[in-house]
Amino acid sequence: MYSLAWKWIMKVFIPLYCISFLVLTACVGGSGFRPTVAPDSSRYTRTVLAEGLDEPMEMVILPGNDVLFVERKGGVRLYKDATKELRTVANFEVFSGIEDGLLGVVADPDYERNHWLYFYYAVAGDSAVNRLSRFEFRNDSLSRPSETVILEIPTQRIYCCHSAGYLKFDKQGNLYLSTGDNTNAEETEGYTPVDERAGRGLADDQATAANTNDLRGKILRIKPLPQGGYAIPEGNLFAKGTPKTRPEIYAMGIRNPYRFSIDAETGYLYFGEVGPDTQVEAPDGEKMSYDEINQVREPGFFGWPYFLGNNDVFPKYNYETKAEEPGKDPANPINESPNNTGLRELPPAQPAMIWYGKTNSKYFPLVGNGGASAMAGPVFYSKHFKNAPYKLSDYYDGKLFIYEWIRGWIMAVSFDEQGNFAGMEPFLDHWKFDAPVDMQFAPDGAIYLLEYGTNWFAKNTNARLIRIEYAEGNRNPIPAITMDSQYGAAPFTVQLSSAGTIDHDGSDQLDYHWEIDGEAYTGPTVSHTFSANGNHKVVLTVTDGHGGSGETQRMVYVGNTPPEVRISTKGNRSFYWDDSALDYRVFITDKEEQVDPERISVSFGYIPHGKDAAIVLTNGQDAASFQYLKGQTLISSLDCKSCHSVDQESVGPTYTAIAKRYARQDGATEFLAGKIIQGGSGNWGERAMSPHPELAREDAVEVVNYIRSLSSKGEKLPLQGELPLTAHQGQEGVYLLTASYRDGGANGIDALVARDYVSLRYPLLQAEDFDAGNVAIATVTTAFMAYVYGIVHDTYIRFNAIDLSGVARMGFRVQPNGSGGNIVVRQGSKDGPVVCTVTVPAGQYSGAEDGWQELSASVKGELDNKDLYLTFENPSATTHLFHLDWLKFYRKP
């Protein structure tokens, strides 16, 4: 009996156990079950390592977490992790017109032994050639004599656009290089560049991207040789020796493959295709202005300039007759252009994996709308980062990261078991990125990101190198630095604080370590004196005692003291009264220069909705231009900033240039509003502007009104005068007087702006609008009123910066509902000097709308501009005292 039972167990249970164990092991994958929920955003920390970069392009993460990156105009920069400093280690002489320049850099797979770096750049001089070369990089120095030329690609430098130039190695040691189509992209008349007219070869993508005998508009795959040059790996699109082809081609039919990656497990290549702006409609009615993310499982033709998106077909546009002709067949595309030097019959076109246009996508709704520049980033595998301290959650195992230059997002893309697209989701969407241009994983699991910044072809203050760390278990602190002043003349003493530092684990004991000008400090606050002019970096590292660490930095600028602007008035600085005026005088001083009257701005206006005054002041806007605030706010929320700025050149015209052109044109507002909504080209060259069909017409008009307001500076007020207060209607608005001065910069420090203002509101404050307090607010919807209720002894409310000069007495609308007591008005603090007291009698009213009355008392003392505290007192009361609706200020006769 025993033996039979044991045999049954051995025969049935043990196999089941083994199967269960194998299934469990497969699910665990050696690192636990894959999470089904994305990690909380608090588990990521972002550190800015360097900023103010000049068009960063591509980076290499070197041993020790040093980061080398290239800038388009030729700079080679090195961030040293050990010293937290950014160095310039080389400058290439490059042709940086159109989109060319120093575009790509990658390290050799055997870098730690041979110290080889590869660069892709447009050679300076008259010869239109882009070059791939190898250099030695040792001891933080790039050896220019070590240059070994690998590959050169002839280009044209007459027309813009598309150079690409990204570089990556696969695990077999093959080097991939993306090249743009290098074709005239600005004279396409709303179609694709297939201009076959005589003399228009540079406007025909059939000569480059769709040409099997040209290296542009491609992703190339080669094997660099130690002595220079390269070999052709097996398995490229065309076998070596095939007539009218280039064996270097891996993928072709690409417009602008700006960023790509190679899946280290599957070998698949993913590339982002920056798309065109066309007027052609796809079968589903959407404009065929798609950007794409493509999956390349094997070499192939990816459609441009004949197809886009899901192999949607472009009509063949005849530039001679201006007529549409039948498009090509995706299964059998034929390149019949007279400018084609390659094969006539092309491989079948491959559809995109993801595609989206300028409007909301019905297929991929998460991508948003507006301008677009799609980028393909790395694929994450947990097993590649074993024991890495900052590796992402296993939730992201096997997912591809894509990102958007213009829209500023990152997405994680999932695949099914066959490797097909299965879905996407936002990644780090609690942060907005400023034109992300490169994304890579470091060996320790951290993410490094280059941000190009706001304006095209410019050095941007928000062009940054950042590091993002993920922490499971104990979370890293998130440091913050505050300072009492950021600008000043040497010697300049700054008080620095770690106020605002966050520790999501809450109970950790934090340690604070500061590095300033080579000196080290500890503690949550420090004081440091800067003795030399220049830009000084302050680095704060916060550790939590459990292995968690976070770092942040800020700059202190020494050499230019901010100017001082002060508005004085003999009147009240808080309130206006009927039939009154505001006298004023503006005082401006600057330690480094004589004040220039041309840089002074004094403005006055009435703002109908008083709470909007805070927006005006936050934006640094003049009061008189408040009427354009809505347009300014709207334009900052759209994608316009990716191509335009107020006065700095970018890829599109400046707003001031647009304002000047259309300053006196009849119908310009409606015309420009239509352009914003519909998009188009032809007014500032052929570069197309993205449409904004979701924008309401009236909002587009607000945007245009703001832009057109920039055509003139408006009338300046004198530095002193008297302004009548006659524009108000009702009690909601405020008068705002602003004065500002921009200095000329000094000692290498940029210009600084200083402002002062006087804001006058109606002399009645609703009690429930207090700035601080420990009382409750009741809302009576039937009476459309709110008030402070349930007042008990020793509670208070506070109003910030209330000027009592010229005030004779104060009135209070109260409801005697309770034990009664005193309202004691004090200045400066809860225990400050008493300026006014009223006594509210005891009473009882059952209705919230009954029994209201006004009590008043005269004010006394030093009646200047201080915080106003209303304290409520009745030490013998055991219940609430009374209710308070508002307080009013009466001026002296």
From TrEMBL:
One GO MF term: iron ion binding
Chain intervals for the UniProt region annotation (Disordered): 184-203, 322-342
Keyword set, alphabetical order: Electron transport, Heme, Iron, Metal-binding, Signal, Transport
Keyword Phosphoprotein attributed: no
Domain CBM6 span(s) in chain numbering: 763-890
Protein residues bound to heme c: 640, 644, 689
Ranges of compositional bias, category Basic and acidic residues: 194-203
Domain spans labelled PKD: 506-558
InterPro entries registered for this protein in UniProt: 6-blade_b-propeller_TolB-like (IPR011042), CBM6 (IPR005084), Cellulose-bd_IV (IPR006584), Cyt_c-like_dom (IPR009056), Cyt_c-like_dom_sf (IPR036909), Cyt_c_ID (IPR002324), Galactose-bd-like_sf (IPR008979), Glc/Sorbosone_DH (IPR012938)
Post-translational modification comment from the UniProt entry: Binds 1 heme c group covalently per subunit.
Domain Cytochrome c residues, every copy: 626-711
PROSITE patterns membership: CBM6, CYTC, PKD, PROKAR_LIPOPROTEIN
Keyword NAD among record annotations: no
Domain of life: Bacteria
Any matching Pfam family: GSDH
Protein name stated in the entry: Cytochrome c
Organism encoding this protein: Parapedobacter pyrenivorans
Lineage: Bacteria, Pseudomonadati, Bacteroidota, Sphingobacteriia, Sphingobacteriales
